[in-house]
Specification:
The protein has eight helices and 16 strands. The protein has 286 residues and is of the alpha/beta class. The longest helix is centred in the first third of the chain and has 22 residues.
Length: 286
């Protein structure tokens, strides 16, 4: 009887460890460099190059699919980055016809730095989601590449992506006029940043209502507002701030409720504000 119980216990431990190994996700070796939009000054570009640790043989891939003018977006980013490095900078404007281009995909997967331009985050994800381009970005990140983006290219980093649209008010504004239940539109992003929601142009456009709306919808998430000319550098669970302005973190709301008229309320929120050189931590799912 005792031997039988030992055998059963051993089998259960084996099955549990096997299941855990199958569900546990490998930790990505790469970094994220997420810019809140606006000017990309020389110091910010130097910080990007330093984060990516580019060697002389490395190249940079620009993904301009967020933009209505992809060639122009590539041109201006290239002009900014060339002040900080001499590496080759190539433009891969993927379309529905190009998402299976093996040559482009191989180059994307092996890039040391990938930069996603500003524009419309929905336009970018419409091209990328559920395609080999999405997989190539994730493979590059897993293998140690730095994935960077600005404005719309910042919004796409998280798994829960703010589109900028309001669901109960169809007039687009730079910031929300209200904090109502079921007002914020969230879609699937790249999912490189877990357990967090990103908002951009944050201080200059006073997007607190929008980020509070995201927090009410996902109270277990950290909601991060990045101002213009400012970036967060993500490596594992550690986040470091770079640039000229501030980063706002709101998280851990207590007793989130919605009134019968759709108003959101919560008893307390943890709010922090950071500037260049500051660090904080977000527990990511591994």
């Amino acid at each position: 009887m005792k031997q039988f119980l030992v055998i059963i216990l051993t089998c259960n431990l084996f099955l549990f460890s096997t299941a855990s190994a199958q569900t546990k996700q490998p930790v990505a070796k790469g970094k994220l460099f997420i810019i809140g939009g606006g000017d990309r000054g020389d110091e910010l570009m130097k910080a990007l190059v330093s984060t990516a640790a580019l060697s002389a043989k490395d190249y940079v891939v620009v993904l301009p699919m967020s933009s209505e003018e992809p060639d122009t977006s590539h041109y201006y980013f290239k002009e900014d980055l060339q002040k900080a490095c001499t590496n080759a900078i190539v433009n891969f404007n993927f379309t529905s016809e190009k998402v299976n281009d093996k040559r482009w995909l191989d180059s994307l997967q092996n890039a040391r730095l990938i930069f996603i331009t500003g524009g419309d985050q929905q336009r970018f994800m419409k091209v990328v989601l559920h395609t080999p381009v999405y997989d190539a970005i994730h493979k590059a990140y897993a293998n140690g590449a730095t994935i960077a983006g600005t404005s719309a290219g910042a919004a796409v980093m998280s798994e829960k992506m703010i589109t900028g649209n309001e669901l109960t008010d169809t007039v687009y504004r730079a910031t929300f006029k209200k904090i109502h239940d079921k007002n914020i539109e969230i879609q699937e992003g790249l999912g490189l940043l877990k357990n967090a929601v990103i908002d951009q142009h944050f201080i200059v456009r006073s997007r607190y209502n929008r980020l509070f709306s995201a927090l009410a919808k996902y109270p277990a998430y950290a909601c991060i507002g990045i101002d213009e000319a400012t970036a967060i550098i993500v490596q594992g669970d550690k986040i470091t701030v770079a640039g000229e302005s501030q980063v706002v973190l709101i998280q851990k709301p207590a007793d989130v409720k919605v009134t019968t008229t759709g108003l959101v309320k919560m008893k307390s929120v943890e709010l922090s504000m950071f500037t260049e050189g500051d660090t904080f931590f977000i527990k990511q799912a591994h």
